[in-house]
Write a structure and sequence with these properties.
The chain is α/β, with parallel strands linked by helices. The chain is built from 14 helices and eleven strands. The chain binds adenosine-5'-triphosphate, iron/sulfur cluster and magnesium ion.
Length: 341
């Protein structure tokens, strides 16, 4: 990868965020005396209007738990989520209204669709739940068209098994769009699809951002996918965001050793892939110091020692990043080289 330019040259846009996590924590109590799993362990994250943010990290790092918490589906242990500056409602009608404005799109379209419901019913379901008083048929038709299923009427009476995987995911997206949300949270939206249709679904999300001003949080373990779709990337490791910034910046000049390791295994990467040492992360055993230190290639190679930060790496935890739009990194070594701690 290229050498790192100084940090902080990308100014924050100053636009008020639509959705914000503020020092959000979600812990799951361990069964039969096992330690608590700190699945989300202090996350600040902003999503601004019309912005696509990719949340990236390996399996088990807390992406889905964070996404569900942003939707009000998992209560935070501490911290809070705000939408349009107001705290998320926790119960009743207000929460239902919130879930209309922020829609979840899941990984596996087959699992999200009832096999006995037609496409029409699948898309109309949200309208019925929310007591939509307008022209249901027109709304369903419009949503299917926006999701790229045209002419929409041709799909009304089909069942999920009569569709391709890509078409099924479009139906799921239409079911979200029909409620005219301001933000979509898509959890691994293309992971179960063939490579050939992944690009089409990602292009659809981009088009919806451009045409409708829709914001999106796209959860993925694939940094390559983030490259194709995101305005901004947040890299998560063991319940924390460890690096965030505009996509171009983060992918061409990554600061955090974990981001560098993730990028090094992409097919288009130059140089040797970084093999991470140690055990896969376990949220019931968050290490002291930098939570990545037991696996960090920069610490293992002696580079952190040479920069005079190895002791800090092992003993001093890093502050929660502020979640804004500028480039930020949680790493003692990156800070010693001119980044922000
Ligand atoms: N309901 C739960 N009860 C206990 N532990 C949970 C629960 N949900 C998630 N976890 C744990 O929290 C951690 C984070 O899980 P999460 O599903 O958020 O990860 P993820 O990043 O989405 O992973 P993947 O990429 O595999 O989907 C994991 O260790 C998981 O086992
Ligand atoms: S703080 Fe130290 S151990 Fe952690 S990622 Fe940076 S260099 Fe590696
Ligand atoms: Mg997940």
């Amino acid at each position: 990868m290229s050498t790192s330019p100084p940090l902080g040259t990308v100014p924050p846009t100053g636009t008020a965020p639509l959705l914000s996590a503020e020092t959000l924590k979600v812990a799951f109590p361990g069964r039969r005396g096992a330690a608590t799993a700190r699945a989300v362990d202090g996350v600040d994250l902003d999503i601004r209007p019309g912005e696509i943010v990719a949340l990236v990290g390996e399996s088990g790092c807390g992406k889905t738990t964070l996404a569900r918490s942003l939707l009000g589906l998992v209560p935070p242990t501490s911290g809070r989520v705000t939408f349009g500056g107001a705290p998320l409602p926790s119960t009743g009608r207000a929460l239902k209204a919130y879930r209309k404005r922020v829609q979840l799109v899941l990984q596996d379209p087959s699992g999200s669709l009832n096999p006995r419901h037609t496409v029409y019913d699948a898309v109309a379901e949200g309208l019925r739940i929310h007591g939509y008083a307008g022209d249901e048929r027109a709304a369903v038709s419009g949503a299917l068209s926006r999701a790229g299923l045209r002419p929409a009427e041709r799909f009304f009476l089909r069942f999920p098994h009569e569709l391709s995987g890509g078409q099924r995911q479009r139906v799921v997206i239409a079911g979200a769009l029909v409620l005219e949300p301001e933000l979509i949270v898509a959890d691994e939206p293309v992971a179960s699809l063939d490579a050939s249709v992944r690009g089409e679904i990602l292009a659809l999300l981009l088009r919806l951002r451009d045409e409708l001003g829709l914001s999106a949080l796209v959860v993925t373990h694939d940094l390559g996918l983030a490259w194709n779709i995101a305005d901004r990337v947040a890299v998560m490791y063991l319940g924390r965001i460890v690096e965030t910034g505009p996509v171009e910046r983060l992918l061409t000049a990554p600061q955090h050793p974990y981001t560098r390791a993730l990028l090094s295994v992409l097919p288009e990467a130059e140089g040797e892939p970084v093999v991470l040492a140690g055990e896969p992360p376990d949220p019931s055993k968050v290490p002291s110091g930098c939570r990545f230190h037991a696996r960090c290639q920069v610490l293992a190679s002696g580079e952190a020692e040479r920069a005079g930060v190895a002791e800090e790496c092992r003993t001093v935890d890093l502050p929660v990043l502020n979640g804004g739009g500028d480039t930020q990194v949680a790493c003692h070594w990156a800070a010693a080289r001119g980044g922000t701690p």
